[in-house]
Amino acid sequence: xxxxxxxxxxxxxxxxxxxxxxxxxxxxxxxxxxxxxxxxxxxxxxxxxxxxxxxxxxxxxxxxxxxxxxxxxxxxxxxxxxxxxxxxxxxxxxxxxxxxxxxxxxxxxxxxxxxxxxxxxxxxxxxxxxxxxxxxxxxxxxxxxxxxxxx
Length: 151
Ligand code: AMP
Prior knowledge:
Elements: H1 9-14, H2 18-23, E1 31-34, E2 38-42, E3 52-56, H3 68-89, E4 94-97, E5 113-117, H4 136-148
Antiparallel strand pairs: 1-2, 2-3, 3-5, 4-5
């Protein structure tokens, strides 16, 4: 499938990832949605039917490196895409996942949100959730440090 050119194409051209190639139309995808800043398409190794990836056209490797403009564009469309996959699959439960860095299971260094329908216990995302103890004084100090670091 050849994707249309757009205002953000030059940014995608900077990143030589498989997603940059998809944005540039150099390799095909099963496209679901496209606007000037965002592209959504089916994941080629789905955890369930309807598993899709929603990516910015901006070539940012991780979410912390993404511009406010691309973040806003993604935020605007994510709920619409969730509603669309619910309507198309009839599956009302789903996970939205965004990995950052190899250690956090990110394979492709281009920001991507997974939308993964959860039709039953066997299909969809399985999540390990190793909770730790919460220390309130340490938590208060950490919350304050993070708050002070907001740019
Ligand atoms: P992550 O582990 O969060 O980096 O996820 C990367 C995802 O990209 C995986 O779920 C892959 O199946 C998916 N993927 C890799 N190559 C392609 C491709 N050419 N088309 C669609 N999805 C892809």
